């Protein structure tokens, strides 16, 4: 059984993918070829934003956005400690300081009720992470941000395709970011990412920064970087994009079916009111996670842990001064979460096999705990 079945996806779209990639090989414009502009137009149309700016990775997209927002030394950016490291390392890369806010237990997203207390005169941006595939309460978050005049940069690397009250991820804040890493809901065959905004000046700035700080050759107005998306990777995403909404719907149905079958034995992800969920990972909470994962592995079922350690526990962030216990919900989640096989092509029979294995493993774990007690 595949944890994420990219081979099956390729077999379904092989003709379109091969044709798109062959076109790039034939015209030879491997950097900033015509597929880049075509993809940006398609992405902006899908997300419902005025601009989309493709970049070399989801990590690069966050850093480019922070630089475009003129965030640097002496500034603070509020984010969460339960996420992949890129969400916070980009803050340090631009010279700013990450400030962490704990998550909600049900959604795994930033607890917006704790946000305002973390804002100081040095706060220059809020960087919420749409973990596992759904968005936090952006109406409440945008209201707080507007009160303090602070932009929000959405890290939608795992939520692209999800909606909140009818609006898509990456369209609800000043700037949105996503990733096309192969395992993401919309992935390429390497690294890639995109930024989204309705702000003309911000879009122009981000385009310049991703291309060595200039919008035309040999004229550099900003300190930039090489953050361009390869044309071949854009071609792959272009081939997949027409199928993406169908995959989003399938993800939602498979995730809901998992929850229906597992709710009586464990803690399943909660879909917040007004949200849809794309289940970039289908993640449950389990006692005795290592024992459960080992039991599933014995039955040929792969699992993964996103993420076993919070960012404030990482040595690279020791200088921030946080101690264990500072973010109890994040810390608890990091010790309990377990992600199950999830992709748009997961059959009901395979899903039933996963569900049965989880129930069996949990039953043995609970029995062992009772006997130990």
Detailed description of the structure:
This protein is 42% helix and 11% strand. It is of the alpha/beta class. Strands 1-9-8-5 form a four-stranded mixed β-sheet. The radius of gyration is 21 Å and the shape is globular.
Quickly list its features.
single chain; 373 residues; alpha/beta; four-stranded mixed β-sheet; three-stranded parallel β-sheet; 11 helices; globular; disordered C terminus
One letter per element, helices H and strands E, the order comes to HHEHEHEHEHEEEEEHHEHHEH
List low-confidence stretches. 369-373
What global shape is seen? globular
Mean pLDDT over all positions: 96
- Distinct helical segment count: 11
Give Rg in angstroms. 21 Å
- Residues in helix, %: 40-55%
**End-to-end span in angstroms?**
35 Å
Largest sheet: 4 strands, mixed
Structure described in brief:
This protein has 11 helices and 11 strands. With 373 residues, it is an alpha/beta fold.
Map the helices and strands.
Blueprint: H1 6-27, H2 34-47, E1 51-55, H3 58-68, E2 76-79, H4 86-93, E3 97-100, H5 115-118, E4 123-126, H6 138-148, E5 153-155, E6 163-164, E7 167-168, E8 175-179, E9 193-197, H7 200-210, H8 231-262, E10 282-285, H9 289-298, H10 328-336, E11 337-340, H11 348-372
Parallel strand pairs: 2-3, 2-4, 5-8
Antiparallel strand pairs: 1-9, 6-7, 8-9, 10-11
Helix pairs in contact: 1-8, 2-8, 3-4, 3-7, 8-11, 9-11
């Amino acid at each position: 059984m595949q944890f994420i079945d990219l081979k099956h996806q390729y077999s379904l779209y092989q003709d379109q993918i091969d044709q798109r990639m062959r076109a790039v090989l034939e015209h030879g414009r491997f950097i900033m070829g015509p597929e880049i502009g075509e993809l940006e137009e398609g992405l902006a149309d899908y997300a419902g934003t005025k601009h989309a700016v493709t970049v070399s990775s989801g990590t690069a997209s966050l850093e480019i956005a922070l630089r475009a927002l003129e965030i640097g030394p002496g500034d603070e950016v509020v984010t969460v400690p339960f996420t992949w490291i890129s969400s916070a390392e980009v803050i340090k890369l631009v010279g700013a300081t990450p400030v962490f806010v704990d998550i909600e237990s049900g959604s795994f997203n930033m607890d917006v009720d704790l946000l305002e207390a973390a804002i100081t005169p040095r706060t220059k941006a809020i960087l919420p992470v749409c973990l596992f595939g759904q968005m936090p309460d952006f109406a409440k978050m945008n209201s707080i941000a507007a009160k303090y005049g602070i932009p929000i940069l959405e890290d939608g690397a795992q939520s692209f395709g999800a909606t909140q009250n009818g609006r898509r991820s990456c369209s609800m804040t000043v700037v949105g970011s996503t990733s096309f890493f192969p395992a993401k809901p919309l992935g390429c065959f390497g690294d890639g990412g995109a930024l989204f905004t309705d702000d003309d000046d911000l879009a122009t700035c981000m385009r310049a920064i991703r291309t060595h700080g200039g919008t035309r050759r040999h004229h550099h107005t900003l300190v930039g970087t090489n953050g361009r998306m390869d044309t071949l990777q854009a071609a792959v995403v272009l081939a997949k994009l027409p199928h993406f909404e169908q995959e989003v719907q399938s993800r939602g149905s498979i995730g809901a079916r998992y929850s229906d079958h597992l709710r009586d034995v464990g803690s399943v992800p909660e879909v917040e009111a007004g949200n849809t969920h794309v289940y970039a990972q289908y993640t449950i909470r389990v006692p005795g996670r290592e024992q459960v994962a080992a039991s599933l592995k014995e039955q040929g079922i792969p699992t993964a842990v996103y993420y076993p350690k919070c960012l404030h526990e990482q040595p690279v962030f020791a200088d921030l001064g946080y101690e264990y216990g500072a973010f109890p919900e994040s810390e608890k989640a990091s010790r309990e979460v377990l992600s199950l096989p999830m992709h748009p092509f997961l059959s009901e029979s395979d899903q039933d096999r996963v569900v049965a294995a989880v129930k069996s493993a949990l039953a043995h774990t609970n029995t062992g705990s009772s006997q130990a007690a």
